[in-house]
What does this fold into?
Amino acid sequence: MKHINFRVFEAKHTCAYFLISLLGLLSAWTQKSFSESLDHEGTTYKLSTGLYNITEPKMAPQVGEDVNLRASSAMGNAWLGIYQAQDKTFSQTRMGWDSSYDLGRLRVQPSVQSAAGGFLGGSVGIETGERVFMGVGLGRTNLKNYFNLNFDPNDAWSASTGYRWSAQEFISLQIVHDNREHPDQQHVHLVYRTPFFESDRFLIDLLYKSGSVENQFIRKYGLMTGVDWGPLGLRLAYDPKVNFSNADMKRLIVSYRY
It folds into this structure.
C-alpha cells in the first residue's frame, strides 16, 4: 500500500478526466430507464464522482476530485477512472476488472488493477456459505506509486464473515492486514446494509484502523455511510490517517446507475 504522494507525473490527465465524464453521460442518454436496464442481461453502468477534502498538520487543506465509470456484465465489472488534485499537482488514471465465479460451495473472486506510473496490482478471494458466509483473500502489487482509492492495504491478507438475510440485506466483519511492507497496519470493517421502501437501501461501514504512521503507532476510527435511491447513490465518509499517512480525509461521492 502506498501513502498519499502528490508528486507530479510527466503526463497530465485532465483530458481523460473529462472524457470519462462525457462517456458516462453519453451512455446514460442512450439507455432506457433504470428499472428496464436491470431487467435485461446486457451491460449496466455506474458513473461516480467524488470530492475529497484532505487535511494535514502544518499544511494547507487540499481538495481532490475523482470520476469513475464502471461497466457490469456477465464478464464481471470493468472500470476506468481518474483522480486529480484540484491544484493540478497530482493526477493519476486507473483501470481494473473484477468478477465472481460460482464453483458450487465456493465462490472465487479475482481482480486486477493498473494505473498511470506503471502500477500493477491484483487480488483473489475465496468465499463460502449462503446465509452464514466466510471468506479469505490475498492482494499483491508491484509496489509502484499508487493513490490508493481502495483505502485498505493492498499488499495484504483479508478474512471476513457475516450473515445475509437476503441479497440486499447483510452484516459483515472484515479484517484487512498488511503482510508485506507494513505488517502492523490493519483495517477492521463492520458493514451493515439494509433495504427500505422498494428500491432504496442504506449502508453503514464502521472502520477501526491500527498501525504505524511515521514510527508512531495509531488507533483510529472512521465511518462511511450511504443511501441509494433507485439509480442515485450518495456516500459520506471520514477517514483519519488515510492510507496510513498523516492526513485526514472527508469524502463525498455521488453516483448514478443505468
The helical segments are 14-30, 34-39. The longest helix spans residues 14-30. The CA atoms of residues 138 and 157 lie 4 Å apart.
